[in-house]
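User: My notes are a mess, but here's the protein and 2-oxoglutaric acid's SMILES. Can you give me a structure?
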Amino acid sequence: MSDKPFRWRTIVEVAAISIVIYIVLGAPGLKTPSHIESTSEQDVPIARARAESLVYPDWKDLKCSKHGVDMHIFSTQPLVIYIDGFLSGDEVEHLVDISEGKWQKSTVFNAGVETEDEAVRKSEKALIPRDDVVQCIEQRALSIQGWPKDTFIERLWTQRYNVSGHYSFHYDWSTATKEAMRVSTFMVYLKADCEGGGTNFPRLRMPDDPKWCRYIQCGKDAGGEGVTFKAKEGNAIFWMNFDSERRGYKEVIHAGMPVTKGTKIGLNIWSWYQKGHMAEL
Ligand SMILES: O=C(O)CCC(=O)C(=O)O
Ligand SMILES: [Fe+2]
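Assistant: No problem, the inputs look usable. Here's the predicted complex:
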């Protein structure tokens, strides 16, 4: 009897077993891990659009004056830091001034499509020009983080909320892949001539020390679940969006609470990890 049919059967069996093992291992190389929200068809166009909005501040010629801040670690896992005095009064005024005439309705991304949806996000946003003041703020944001590798600043947007303006619960993760993700957030308050408008993190735990009540709503004003940071001019909350395994932290889900009186203006500083994206230094 010839051994040919036997060899063919063995090859087919080995191939079948290999396919099963490959699928059990999660098809490495074919798809991104399930904790990273991404659709592979979108990766290329999103990365290209992103690349255009990623900037790196001028580190050679720009002279930024030294700026002291008062930092308080709120949580180490995930890392959340409260920064008192992230911006000076002059910087705040300047950012508000350069936003004038640029306000447009805020949008949200739904399955990769940009839409307006006031039930989710009701505010206006302004893409601010990268003058020296803005670049010094970009520098500050990178310095605080320790200049992480392959990490850039997304062009800065200010955001204005009038009465009933809000941003419902979301993550800042954005669409992420293994090569590109919004690694961290600075939520900065520029104007807080308002009632309401705090930033709520329902999955963060209230700290024990009452000294935090300068910055967060306490006692009968504590509001809903978790922790609500008060909108305070010039101050910022910084947090990391991913753990070291590049899994999005579930604890950093947050919302901009409705403004019930007056106006709040915020500034988003997002740092974006983009593997291989070279900065023009
Ligand atoms: O305005 C706030 O308090 C939160 C804003 C925010 O989460 C965002 O713009 O991503
Ligand atoms: Fe956010």
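Confidence is low (pLDDT under 50) at residues 23-44.
User: Great, I'll file this with my notes.
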